[in-house]
Amino acid sequence: MRRKVTKAIFPVAGLGTRFLPATKSVPKEIMTLVDRPLIQYAIDEARAAGIKEFIFVTSRGKGALEDYFDHAPTLEQELRKKGKDQLLSILKDTNMDSGAIAYIRQHKALGLGHAVWCARRLIGNEPFAVILPDDVIAAEKPCLQQMVEAYEQTGGNMVAAMEVPASQASSYGVLDVEEDMGQMVKVRGMVEKPKAEEAPSNLAVIGRYILDPDVLRSLNQMKSGAGGEIQLTDAIAQEIGGDNGVYGYRFRGQRFDCGSKSGFLQATVSFGLAREELREDLLGFIRDAVRMENAAE
Ligand code: G1P
Questions:
Q1: Ligand 1 atom showing the smallest separation from residue 204 Cα
Q2: By residue range, what is the domain housing residue 235?
């Protein structure tokens, strides 16, 4: 029987320089879409997919992230006293069970592959998920859950995949497709951040992975790749042609690149519009703004 995926790694060691000065004192993952920090979306998605152990690869200055998952007894008491039950239950959903969460430091920023490798001892010999919290995915069925269900059929290694314009391929890991089965593709090659003219396709890797522990063994080699960093893409590519294989999974949902300011703003608007209590107000504002833009042209 295939082993269940119950552990997930969240690489959150990045400095978030694109959001300076905000990230001078606030970890990027604590920045909020409407009223929930980015990391909460990632955690909720992992929980829905059956993840029980949450491994954060952090760095200096990420203390606020660790505090965020702690119980807040004084605050809870206050809300209880005031009868704010709904808020209380929202707050309680952010608590993590004792022992369910672990923090590992990545001491040097050597790349995503290295960050994942830092968690190797906590993973052991089990398949595991990796979630990049910058990639926020709005979906009826959470993306990782879709992937876990598909993975139950395929095993091996699976990466979330999405078509991107050719001009953007150089920002991603890109798949070389051996066989296109529609929802899923079998992969025969993977290139991290290829030059536009060298991209093998326009199918890009998005930050959700289900990986075989063999990938961690490949990472032991510490080979540096694109940008001089130890790339997760390269370690996964080493699995191609082996017993396990690599699959790309075209998830159903809308992905926001919350590592960029524009993506973050788009996610804010989209998640705001999805909230019944905000929708009307926000729509009115957007309509007015568009009208004024058009009038000015
Ligand atoms: C990382 C991965 C890349 C992937 C991307 C998805 O790159 O290395 O393969 O396509 O996430 O967001 P980063 O965006 O951290 O440079």
A1: 10
A2: 7-259
